[in-house]
Amino acid sequence: METRVAARRSLPPLVAQLPFLLLILLTVSSCAAAATSDLVIGEDYVRPPARRHRKALLSLFPWRKKKASSSSSDPQQVHISLAGEKHVRVTWITDDNSVPSVVDYGIKAGTYTSTSQGESTSYSYLLYSSGKIHHVVLGPLEDNTVYYYRCGGQGPEFQFKTPPSQFPLSLAVVGDLGQTSWTTSTLNHIKQCEHDMLLLPGDLSYADYMQHLWDSFGKLVEPLASTRPWMVTEGNHEKEHIPFFESGFQSYNARWKMPYEESGSASNLYYSFEVAGAHIIMLGSYTDYDENSDQYAWLKADLAKIDRKRTPWLIVLLHAPWYNSNWAHQGEGDSMMTAMEPLLYAAHVDMIIAGHVHAYERAERVYNGRLDPCGAVHITIGDGGNREGLARRYRNPKPAWSVFREASFGHGELKILNSTHAHWTWHRNDDEEPVRTDDVWINSLAGTGCIQDSSRELRKILMAP
Fold it and tell me: What range(s) does the Calcineurin-like phosphoesterase domain occupy (predicted)?
């Protein structure tokens, strides 16, 4: 069912945001500085001054002129995501309400042998009205295949490649992306790496109530997000909740629809999917997660269904990190960790990847605050290029579980070579070429003594009502 979009307001987008920009400024609070003896400023690396990329910076200004060749019916902000086994969802926006939610596609450029129809939605946020947001699911599709597609029956041709059905599998990972000159560097470096999919553990656009920044973000990431699936979960900057005026996650849910229904979830804020031999779980740090919550019940059910012979790799993404030696956001993930870490430990999760802290950190396998060979490798990668800058202050001495930490922008790459071995690298984005700065081999827990010798009590956690 298509929902008609209300007429756009004539006010410039920035002016339209003024009634609640003041509200945002009044609600911003600053943390008290920790004692100097508890802090380490960076670790061996000092970041140079930021370069300026005029094109990226101009995307932040809503009053820039549109290209004369653009049409209100042309697709904007095109991105794709997985939508169940052998299916992909194409999402785009048009200013023209009459454009149908339809995608023509095929495996040969300019030749479309299949057509899929979908749905559309829109939303209003205070004085802002979105364009028509189209969601169309394509499939079934062949694995590891390039498809050419056209949105809305007209306009330019795009192309994407489906992920493989078996190893090797290459995943790009980036958090807290934003829309700065450093974002541009990070995206350019990701483009240089061969990847099958991108994972983003929250804080996408940094719109923070200013809805036109969702539009500029969609245009900024389209060159990458239209060619490979982007699988995301929400961060604190997606909440956009104004008491008595606007509910939370309205923009995020309308624009970035993930395969939550296919995974049995009741919320777009948490879900799971499988690709090649990996089961990937996207958790919601900003929706209920205690033992009485829907998310907790869903997670138990999802973990109980996993077959580690079919998907030997088990990876979890969330926004607020559980293991963090940076001064920023200390303890913010503790309550979620208390509720859910025993579940994930019982299921023998291989990796837990978080964002939120604007720096990079990799931990050894850890559980319950201590090194544990059967625990998960924890990685914080909230350093995509956000406008708030880097979190440079670390706690000292470094915890025993912390292996590598650096306050720098960059992205990660996880190359899963087979059922037992994966190669993780983190790439600092200072130079024209990404600099590989952290590098480690990770072994899957599937088939190890951790699973074979796990205690009866831990197994009961997943089976308990």
Answer: 171-360
Residue 297 lies in a domain: yes
Among 107, 134, 161, the domain boundary falls at 161
The parent domain of residue 249 ranges over 169-463
Q: What is the pLDDT of residues 396-420, one digit of tens each?
A: 999 999 999 999 999 999 999 999 9
CA distance 116 to 411: 34
Residue 402 lies in a domain: yes
Instruction: Classify residue 353 as exposed, middle or buried by CB count within 10 Å of its CB (0-12, 13-18, 19+).
Output: buried
Question: Which residues does the annotation mark as catalytic?
Answer: 329
pLDDT in tens, 261-295: 999 999 999 999 999 999 999 999 999 999 999 99
pTM equals 0.87
